[in-house]
Amino acid sequence: MPYQRKNIAILALGLTSVLLSSCGFGSGRSSLPPAPTVSNQTGASEEYIIGPLDEISIFVWRNPDLSGKFRVRPDGRITSPLISDLPAAGKTSAMLAQDIKIQLSEYINDPIVQVIVTDFDGGSQQVRVIGATEKPAAIPFRANMTLLDAMIAVGGLSEFASGNKATLIRVNRGTGRQQEYALRINDLLKRGSSQANIPLQPGDVIIIPTSSF
Fold first, then answer.
1. 88 in the Ramachandran plot: left (φ > 0), alpha (ψ -120 to 50) or beta?
2. Whole-model pTM?
3. Is 130 left (phi over 0), alpha (psi -120 to 50) or beta?
4. Coil, strand or helix: which one is 13?
5. Residues 189, 149: Cα–Cα separation, whole Å
6. Residue 158 in contact with residue 132, Cβ under 8 Å?
7. Residues 6 or more apart from 5 whose CB is under 8 A from it?
8. I need a surface site. Which of 27, 125, 182, 191 has the fewest CB within 10 A?
9. Spatial distance between the Cα atoms of 81 and 69, rounded to a whole number of angstroms
10. Residue 99 belongs to what H/E stretch?
11. pLDDT digits (tens, 9 = 90+) for 108-152
């Protein structure tokens, strides 16, 4: 009888999981396409994304008074001559240069602007894995990094992790807004589902909750 009760309990838990899935749990999150199934793929890393506390050099052609080195504030913004509180974090050097050009166009006819990152804090070039994992960590991003790479780096899920309810937080480079994506880490690690292995980007944050039962 105890053995039968144990089997019934297991079946009940499985049924509960199915019902939660069918009711659209976590439906407010989007999904990401799977990573390409190419082993040992190599290539250049994505262009550096500016982050808080990075130091940048702004060069405005024929305007040395507007040029110089500036530190990105903790709130992700910069202030330079004629420019106040311009968002810089989450952008590439080219994107920021274009934004500065637009700002300066109010004062200068067709300014030529170049932005170079001269010193970086490094936080924006990491992937952070937090929550119910064996070793929560900030992992240096590398080219073609995937969710599987990140989970191997942190030692997988902890005993009570709810991997299929995990979330990836990513900043949209175009709008600067955060977006949430659903992850199915249990399917990836325990079932070997290639569809659950998604490509990562610098600055991604993976949040893994614990099971509620």
1. alpha
2. 0.55
3. beta
4. helix
5. 11
6. yes
7. none
8. 27
9. 11
10. helix 93-104
11. 999 999 999 888 765 567 898 999 999 999 888 887 899 999 999
